[in-house]
């Protein structure tokens, strides 16, 4: 004989999902599974999604127009309470979705219980994250433009200044300071392009997938997409609720941005040292030592460099999170949000302060020019000169290498050699070589597209200024 049915009445049944449970959730389990302490920041996105969903349910006749109105008003009131700081988030309700739904039911009664019709927390959280990331992507793109403007402003201000370019952290060839700065402009332009491309895959509407199989109710997913500004909807309900590729891609973009910021930070740390003295960081962007009174430490670039570990770590955490998950939704995915939030926050803060720091940076032009005087930085110019005299490059390379070796032995630079001394290495060398062996002459000769000649750098700078001006319109 089967056991008679009974209707549990303890706390388990008071959970919004508690109908089939007969025991209370352990307090330790509630604490362990709660995410409200970090996903509360999704409240605007959750409410926006719920409003669009309720409007669709009313339009489709799944709920009445009056119930739709009550839900919309109730959600508006809850939004105002949260933003006024009056809303109490309850950990026992687990997450932002249940906190808002329970508050809605308490506020408007049984109409609020109909809000979750034809949806699951699985597609609901996917929607919230996509809405959040769409905003964050736009914010990062704007911050990137702000940082690019700082580079362009410094490039304009220092146009004509020359510094050593480096390979292997060894002085290599003279370059314009503006050319070096515009290299970062290009890096961050690629970052912007990556984010714009990533946004296309973020900007796909997932609601309507429900738990994993869709719904038998006559919903209108396209209507919800239009209400929320999505140009398209997801195509497969199982993929929809198990997908976090868009989040991984976003954090990957963040990691690359942070790597670029870290490379800049490393150069600023080096350049502001006594060994280089290429730049002076404003006092307002440095700190002192608790024991050494003379110290001026480049803490801001050091912290930016250090924070790259956080963002790279967030990317690795997300990749590891997904690597072994079977379709479709698994609770493991709750671990995605803290990584997403931290990566977005870290990169946005670093972009903003980097732009501010660059705007308060001074280049020591005389010191940089002095650094081009030693180290045979124009040796390649001598080799190119010989190539222009119909000497094969490999032969020219050997000739200049011999000249450099002789200079090292004699304690001289190439510019110290007389025409007669230069001609001992190659008879084709003439008086016109001396114009090329100066840092100014070297840079002027680099006329290839993308090169460091003043002509090419001026063109690149003007183009960057035009691009940024157009984006401001």
SSE arrangement:
Layout: H1 27-33, H2 36-39, H3 43-59, H4 65-83, H5 96-108, H6 121-157, E1 162-167, E2 170-176, H7 177-202, E3 204-205, H8 221-228, E4 232-233, H9 237-242, H10 245-271, E5 279-281, H11 299-323, H12 336-359, E6 361-363, H13 365-371, H14 379-388, H15 393-410, H16 419-423, H17 439-445, H18 454-472
Parallel strand pairs: 3-4
Antiparallel strand pairs: 1-2, 5-6
Helix pairs in contact: 3-4, 3-6, 3-8, 4-5, 6-7, 6-12, 6-18, 7-10, 7-18, 10-11, 10-12, 11-12, 14-15
Describe it.
The chain has 473 residues and is mainly alpha-helical. The chain has three domains: 17-117, Fumarase/aspartase (N-terminal domain) (Fumarase C, Chain B, domain 1, Orthogonal Bundle); 122-370, Fumarase C, Chain A, domain 2 (Up-down Bundle), CATH 1.20.200; 374-472, Ribonucleotide Reductase Protein R1, domain 1. Helix content is 59%, strand content 5%. The chain has 18 helices and six strands. A two-stranded antiparallel ribbon has the order 1-2. Strands 3-4 form a two-stranded parallel sheet. A hairpin with a 2-residue loop joins strand 1 (162-167) and strand 2 (170-176). Helix 14 (379-388) runs antiparallel to helix 15 (393-410). The chain is elongated.
